[in-house]
Automatic annotation (TrEMBL):
One of its GO terms (molecular function) is phosphatidylinositol bisphosphate binding. Coiled coil: none annotated. It comes from Operophtera brumata. CDD domains: SEC14. GO terms for cellular component: membrane. It comes from the Eukaryota. It holds the Pfam family CRAL_TRIO. Residues 110-258 form the CRAL-TRIO domain. This is Clavesin-1. InterPro entries: CRAL-TRIO_dom, CRAL-TRIO_dom_sf, CRAL/TRIO_N_dom_sf.
């Protein structure tokens, strides 16, 4: 029964009095196969490559975060796309070429070196680097989605995961007022259960700032709660991310130049086609 997740030797059927109810999982009749061929392009030379491409696009992306449990991967796929359907204003037409502003603001940075656990490190600078009058929190969210969608394509990120740092150094009162409970809830829901990135004990989301409680109040799972950390010093940060992977602004020793948001935008534009289904 390849069409179903339920482990059955034969198609489900139920005899109710004189009526036989069944889910028909047999091969289509020849006449129906002709319809599939003429109207759906269902021929061996089309089906084979299409199935293989779909597998490449979906299998590792969703199976690795679920440790190759197919039922869990199926659940993740459903929740992943349900979140997108529930937030059409954020996801409709979400491609790099339409989000130039947030990258040019340089509030999103990906460190050039993975951390000691092999994780990608994404930094959101929502304090003194952020001009909230020209770049909204929704813009920041969309930029994060694009960067993490790109990261999900990477085999090493599928295996090791990612860590997100929210740097709110210099956060002003006017900026703090931009953080509404509804936005915090959306971010937590997105991070907690709707993203095909591996959940692991040392895959934290690090907050630095007074809005920390607004986010943690919306966390449902204790496991994820343990991975959201309020970072108050570089010393505490170094307990989770090696200084070798961090720039001097975080007390690190990394000397490799950090690409700007605008530079990351240019890279994302090269593979814009990958985001057409985002």
């Amino acid at each position: 029964m390849d069409q179903m997740l339920t482990d059955l030797d034969q198609a489900p059927r139920l005899q109710s009095g004189d009526v036989l109810l069944q889910i028909e999982l047999d091969e289509p009749r020849d006449a129906v196969k002709a319809i599939a061929r003429d109207q759906l392009r269902e021929t061996p030379d089309v089906v084979g490559p299409a199935v293989q491409k779909l597998r490449r696009l979906l299998e590792m992306r969703f199976l690795r975060p679920c440790k190759f449990y197919p039922e869990s991967a199926y659940k993740l796929i459903k929740s992943y796309y349900k979140f997108k359907l529930d937030h059409p204003s954020e996801y409709n037409g979400l491609v790099p070429s339409r989000q130039r502003n947030v990258f040019n603001q340089n509030v999103l940075n990906v460190l050039p070196r993975r951390d000691q656990h092999g994780r990608r490190v994404l930094i959101l600078k929502l304090g003194k680097n952020w001009n909230h009058t020209t770049c909204s929190l929704d813009d920041v969210f969309k930029g994060c989605v694009l960067l993490l969608e790109a990261a999900i394509l990477e085999p090493e990120t599928q295996i090791c995961g990612a860590v997100v740092i929210l740097d709110m150094d210099g956060l002003s009162w006017a900026q703090m007022l931009q953080f509404r409970p509804a936005f915090a809830k959306k971010i937590v829901n997105w991070l907690e259960s709707e993203r095909p990135l591996r959940h692991q004990p040392n895959c934290p989301f690090m907050f630095d700032g007074v809005v920390f409680p607004m986010f943690t109040n919306h966390i449902k799972g204790q496991k994820f709660r343990s991975r959201v950390i309020n970072i108050k010093s570089n010393g505490l940060l170094h307990q989770h991310i090696s200084p070798n992977c961090l720039p001097s602004s975080y007390g690190g020793t990394l000397t490799i130049p950090i690409a700007t948001g605008a530079q990351w935008l240019q890279l994302l534009l090269v593979c814009e086609r990958e985001f057409n289904g985002t």
